[in-house]
Amino acid sequence: MYTTAFLDVPPLLGAGGSVRLPGSKSISNRVLLLAALSEGTTEVHDLLASDDTRVMLDALRQIGCDVQEPQNPASAPVHITGLGGREPHSPASLFLGNAGTAMRPLTAALALLGGEYQLSGIARMHERPIGDLVDALRQLGCAIDYLGQEGYPPLRIAHGAGVPPLALDAPIRVRGDVSSQFLTALLLALPLAAREQAIAIEVVGELISQPYIHITLELLARFGIAVQRDGWQRFTIPAGSRYTSPGSIHVEADASSASYFIALGALAAPPGSQNPLKILGVGLDSIQGDIRFIEAAQAMGARVQGGPGWLQVERGAWPLKAIELDCNHIPDAAMTLAVMALYADGPSTLRNIASWRVKETDRIAAMARELRKLGASVEEGADWLRVHPLRAAADWRAASIHTYDDHRVAMCFSLAAFNPAGLPVRIEDPRCVGKTFPDYFEALFSVAQAAPECIPVICIDGPTASGKGTLAASVAQQLGYHFLDSGSMYRTTALAAMRAGIAIEAQRESQLAELARSLPVRFDAGRIWLAGDDITEAIRTEEVGMNASRVSALPQVRAALVALQLAFRRLPGLVADGRDMGTAIFPGAPLKVFLTASAAVRAERRHRQLIAKGIVSTIADLRADLEARDARDASRSASPLKPAEDALPLDNSLLSVDQTTAQVLDWWQARQPF
Ligand code: DC
């Protein structure tokens, strides 16, 4: 997840490859409860890892379900062994965080299972109503008390002496206009009481969020419960209902999240490509309402194929076809259409989107304001939005998109990076995507392509111990860019030569170059691995540093390491530190800094570093060493240490890391079009 203040998305050109989307929250917690009520073990694949599923899993364990979680839920299934007919463990006190999708269905299920329980959550959970559900369960004869405020959690279920006889003859009435989760909770739990007789539920008032009830009914069907439905007002659970585990079940990926990638295909996946854009985890068999975004994307020209759990999307009509659409059935995904409309052949109108006004932010106002920043002309009404396309490259403006703490604003505006003007797009506060899709930008960058020269590189070159590694890492962190410590590649080569017993001398140049070319090295989350051995610390010794300096003087070795260094230029950008980043490896980089500090300051810094590692040395020796190394690095014929002509000099002898970082970021910002 990007936690930076902003993320600059470079201009993007194409899309291809496979992307797996995270699971749907609504489906995840429903599946967990159904598995817990079934007999036998259910293998749950692709469960969403989030706070809300965490509390559900913990609660199920507490009431006696066996829950086996893999280290990484993305790669292996979770196994739940359900209660079947067994009694749950009781008494139990369950903490359910802020998960409405755990609190409501567990209340209903535990009230019908018997036993004594307390259900509580965080303070905000205790402000979220549950009275309509409790009223419905009390009608049946369940004993539920409020432990705090009437109508809100925390709750106590007191069935120590077993579930009392339930009043099942009359239909159970529940309000449908506050939250559809009350109806979902009853639908999920009442099959427990429908062994002998059918149970009817009647919705009082208009039912909101019908697509979510559809999800509930579909999942019940997969667990063997065939609910009969009369319109959206009356539901009947047949007599003899029994939860039957499907054995193995996949949690669909979130269909609203898929909309960004469907749009990506429509904008940028070339038809007939060898490397088509595939979306994994959600497909044409989806039970989620937002899957109908596909129809809207097709109306705009997208070519979509798919099957169970997968979609493949490519560009069809280009420019896209303008649409006029009632978006009531896909309110969330429709925001993606508003950005696609920039690429259409005429104005597009999205209608019946009044609900946008009361979401995370006033989404109609927010979309209009931000689309205008890109240069578009936008009209808006109480419940509609009309977006005029930006037909010519010259019509586009580079914009810094404010995201209003709204994950969907952040995600859909990243699609503006496909503009024909080749302009980057700045997304402010990118971490807001964490609400539903923490790794959205990583997923985008894994399937989006940019021209290599459009992926920004900041070069930070300088002599040893000038602090360039610290500075480069800090700048990379502020911008969310990748970080290349090119010195580590020479150090790794030196260490590999030392371990292989190859003398570091000019006569061995081609052997050393071969070693460098075929280094089994892996850079992973700040650690460096050489053939399965973590060498992050081992390459930092003075001895390895001195040998690195020697090995780096050999032109064939330098040439052998070029490809490895260039491969670090990946979306969304790179900060590279070394000696020749700006002169030899990335000569076209838009910002080059040559960092220096006086020999005295550098020797002191190195001394402090070594003391911290418990290594004894004297400042005088260190100074002599680093001056020797500077002399060799500067005098060698291959890429000698010298500033690129267009490098900005920066002496940080008297500056802190923060001050130096701020200076580089200022220079960088001055080069941006925002
Ligand atoms: O920055 P460092 O101390 O980790 O680098 C180790 C050696 O590698 C240094 O003495 C010179 C060499 N080097 C180089 O020649 N070119 C680079 N781009 C980076 C490092």
Can you summarize this structure?
The protein is an alpha/beta fold and 674 residues long.
State the low-pLDDT regions, or none: none
Counting DSSP H or I runs of 4 or more residues, the number of helices is 22
Mean pLDDT: 94
CATH architecture of the largest domain: Alpha-beta prism
Q: Which assembly state applies to the chains in this document?
A: single chain
The CATH topology of the largest domain is given as: UDP-n-acetylglucosamine1-carboxyvinyl-transferase, Chain
Q: How many domains, in number, for the residues?
A: 3
Largest sheet: 5 strands, parallel
Q: Main traits of this protein?
A:
four-stranded mixed beta sheet; 674 residues; globular; Rossmann fold; 19% strand; alpha/beta; UDP-n-acetylglucosamine1-carboxyvinyl-transferase, Chain; 35% helix; binds 2'-deoxycytidine-5'-monophosphate; 33 strands
Describe this structure in words.
The chain has 674 residues and is α/β, with parallel strands linked by helices. The protein folds into three domains: 6-21 and 253-452, Enolpyruvate transferase domain (UDP-n-acetylglucosamine1-carboxyvinyl-transferase, Chain); 25-250, UDP-n-acetylglucosamine1-carboxyvinyl-transferase, Chain, CATH 3.65.10.10; 453-670, 3-Layer(aba) Sandwich (Rossmann fold). It has 22 helices and 33 strands. The strands form nine sheets. A five-stranded parallel beta sheet has the order 27-31-26-32-33. A four-stranded mixed beta sheet has the order 3-16-18-17, covered by helices on one side. The chain has a four-stranded mixed beta sheet with strand order 5-6-4-15, with helices on one face. β13 (228-230) and β14 form a beta hairpin. α1 (25-37) packs parallel to α6 (210-222) and α7 (255-268) runs parallel beside α8. The model has no long low-confidence stretch (mean pLDDT 94). 2'-deoxycytidine-5'-monophosphate (DC) is lined by residues 464, 486-487, 490-491, 545, 548-549, 552, 578-580, 629, 633.
